[in-house]
Each structure stands twice: as structure tokens, then as C-alpha cells.
Amino acid sequence: MTEIETVTDEKWNAIIHNDVSYDGTFYYAVKTTGIFCRPSCKSRVPNKENVLVFATAEGALKRHFRPCKRCRPNGLRLPDEEWVAQITEYIDGHYHEPLTLSVLADMCHGSPYHLQRTFKKITGISPIEYIQKKRFAKAGDLLMHTDKTVMEIALTVGFPNTAHFATLFKKRTGSSPTEYRKTAGTRQGGSL
């Protein structure tokens, strides 16, 4: 089993200050993202309690952490398909939160431009389109299977503005959320 090192104050300071002089002396992995980085990585500073420290990149790989797209520890790269799978998994679990390209890029240690281009190349749609698709699929399910109000559903799927949600929902489905709910009994599992 690979030894995990202690996150000392010295190492933590190297991480939060992106100290290049510590590159090659240790690597840090973030449990919540499944990614490992060099100390000099410019990605958002993780919560200390989510950080594991390894002496080598191989140690992090053995513990099933993936190399960061931004800092490429030891020249390792995460294949695009795996990276996009990681992003979609994150979106699937957080679609109800305010998600932007910048938030996603920060989470997955890449640039917004590269994320947009790679995601679209692999999936055929943009990350924002994927988020909308996920939100509307969940909204349709809630409309068909719950008695939540349209406002509650809008908030649940990540739309703080009910009128905006209703407008986009009608544009996407051809019916308002209320009309959609009324015809739910005649619908046979159609997807949004």
C-alpha cells in the first residue's frame, strides 16, 4: 500500500502559495475531485481536510487519483474522455448549483476555453447545454411525479427565477410547466 504523507504546515503553505520550489518533492491529491497536482498548480486552493500528500506521482496514481489537466504532474495527462466523464459526473451531482464554465474549469483543473472545446468534441454539446439538459430532465420528472409547485421545481433544479425557468421550459418542450404536468398522464417516458 502506498504511504500517504502528513500534510505539514510547510507543505500546506507550498500548496496555497503555489510554490514551484516544492515541485518534485511531493504531490497533493484532492479527495473530492479525484485529481492530483504539483504544489505549484494554479488551481483553486482545496479544503485542507480533503488533501492527501504523496511523495511521488506514482503513489497518487496507485491510489486512483488522476493527473491534473492544468499542471500536468510529471508530464502525465488525463485522457480527454476521462476528463469529460469526470466533468459530466460532477455536473450530474451538482446541476442544481450555479454552474459556469469557470466553476467547472476550476473544479476539474483546466481552462474554461479548453473545457468548452474538449467537452463539445467528446459529447457533441457544450457543458452549458449538458447542464440545461440535465436540469430540464429532472424538472420534467418532478412535474410528472410530484405535486411540488413550479417555483419549488425551478429552485430544485437550479433556476432561482421561476419566470425564466418557465420561458426556457416552454421553449424546450413546447408547453409550459403547468401544461406539461397536465398532460403527464398521456406522456410515455419522453425525454426532454
TrEMBL record:
Keywords in alphabetical order, please: Activator, DNA damage, DNA repair, DNA-binding, Metal-binding, Methyltransferase, Transcription, Transcription regulation, Transferase, Zinc
Q: Which domain of life is it from?
A: Bacteria
Pfam families in alphabetical order: Ada_Zn_binding, HTH_18
Query: Which PROSITE patterns does the UniProt entry name for this protein?
Result: HTH_ARAC_FAMILY_2 (PS01124)
GO terms classed as biological process: DNA alkylation repair; methylation
Instruction: Give the matching InterPro entries.
Output: Ada-like_dom_sf, Ada_DNA_repair_Zn-bd, Homeodomain-like_sf, HTH_AraC, Me-P-triester_DNA_alkyl-Trfase, Tscrpt_reg_AraC-type_HTH
Which cofactor(s) does the record list? Zn(2+)
Q: Where is the HTH araC/xylS-type domain?
A: 85-183
Q: Establish whether keyword Transcription is in the entry.
A: yes
Q: Could you state a single Gene Ontology molecular function term?
A: methyltransferase activity
Keyword field contains DNA repair: yes
Record protein name field: AraC family transcriptional regulator
